[in-house]
Amino acid sequence: MPRVAAFGEVMMRLQVPGYETLVQSSRLEYSFSGTGVNVTAALARYGHNGALITTLPETPVGEAAIAYLRKLGVNTSLISRGGRHLGMYFLENGFGARPGRVTYTDRLGSSFNTAEADSYNMSGLAASVDVLHLCGITLAMNEEVRRQMKQLAAEVKRAGGKVVFDCNYRPALWGTDGYTKARRHYEDLLTLADTVMMNEKDAQFILGTGTGEYDRITQLKQAIPEVAERFGIGTAAGTHREINADNTHSLTGYIYHQGTFEFSRKLTFPVFDRIGAGDAFASAVIHGELQQYPHQHTVNLAAAAAMLAHTVQGDTALFTEAEVVRAMSDHTLDVER
Predict the structure, then answer these.
(1) Kind and range of the H or E element at 143?
(2) Does residue 105 fall inside a structural domain?
(3) Is residue 322 part of a domain?
(4) Taking a C-beta distance cutoff of 8 angstroms, is the pair 58, 81 a contact?
(5) Cβ-contact 256, 237 below 8 angstroms
(6) Helix (H, G, I), strand (E, B), or coil: what is residue 177?
(7) What is the pTM of this model?
(8) pLDDT tens profile 151-187
């Protein structure tokens, strides 16, 4: 069975119950999350060996994180221990005109973001990984983490493995002139990537690819083939989201492979918790690629997985493939008995 590993930070999510704000509430519910957590847990649910490469503190909080990951089915054998802190963020759920809000603590002081170069045996990790998942959120952290990502990706490629890179650009993490700062690092990882999660906005703003004054689908069809050819990318995939007047969301997924686009149908649904939906989409794309499904089926599966991720609380969407396939059908059951 291929081992799929993700390199990234584990964070503690501290959520205000219901729709209260931090000012109103005196209670918080905690869980552990992160892009790597979401992806490896989802892939484990699909039947793969999903492992996380990270560094956690040797504290009760670090132990709680490992116990949580094991409960999700994540392989924890590649986790290093060291440092003193776990990154945290506070989540307030939005309602109506009030948007949801995420407030981070000092992430740069976390065990993952302060891990030294020798914390990981890069060649040893690469030898045990068939598919490596990397994320633009991790890329934004600091220069040492960026160096570790590029080294690990290069080692995985050298060992014959595949690299999946999710652009996941976050303006707040890169700061002033963020696109300019990020570009060379994105170009380095895109050069190493086999499968990429991105859309036309990533191509336009991060890479400077011209898209013209057209609708988004036309821009996508112009930009993605250009990026794929430039960097030698085998598969690109992503989503378009629309927020409707009635507060429902609509999502359309795409996959581009060897000159051909496949699109899912537009899915419209109410939203319970939208954090982690992109990771659910990416996980299903990785699963479809590993199973060698037709690309039309894979993009339909991924869009349905992203839709389902909006229906559960928490960052990590844990659905079996059968549940996602059921969501792809046009009918919705009231209660399963």
Answers:
(1) helix 143-158
(2) yes
(3) no
(4) yes
(5) yes
(6) coil
(7) 0.92
(8) 999 999 999 999 999 999 988 889 899 999 999 999 9
